[in-house]
């Protein structure tokens, strides 16, 4: 049975490292509400950083950075997996979804949430994808 994680209000990097560890250990993980994960920092800096990343390289050779929030989250996890056959196999055990298809029941995980940022600025993946 696959573990289902709700990304709503979770900090992207913390969530991604938790998920990367799980898929490396052989767990099937599904992430719902990917667009509601947050990146801490000022919106202007975050938008500029992602625009620079998307502007680097070429269309033919990459690197390719996704615009869709669920793919942004998936690519963040991919960056935390090893660059070998074990990492590729682990990556196949991860699925990300925009929203919560079929109203899936989610498992509670212990990662830092937006409420713990104590008033610091942050951006959701949904707003980031709209602005790049």
Instruction: Give the second-level CATH assignment, the architecture.
Output: Alpha-Beta Complex
| Order of strands across the main sheet | 1-2-4
* CATH homologous superfamily descriptor: Ribosomal protein L13
- Number of separate domains: 1
What do the pLDDT scores average to? 90
* Distance N to C terminus: 36 Å
- CATH class descriptor name: Alpha Beta
User: What is the fold-level CATH name, i.e. the topology?
Assistant: Ribosomal Protein L13p, Chain: A
Number of helices: 5
Secondary-structure element order, as H and E? EHEEHHHEEH
- SS class: alpha/beta
Q: What Rg, in angstroms, do the CA atoms define?
A: 15 Å
Strand tally is 5
Provide the β-strand percentage band.
5-15%
- What does the overall shape look like? globular
Largest sheet: 3 strands, parallel
Helix content range: 25-40%
Low-confidence segments: none
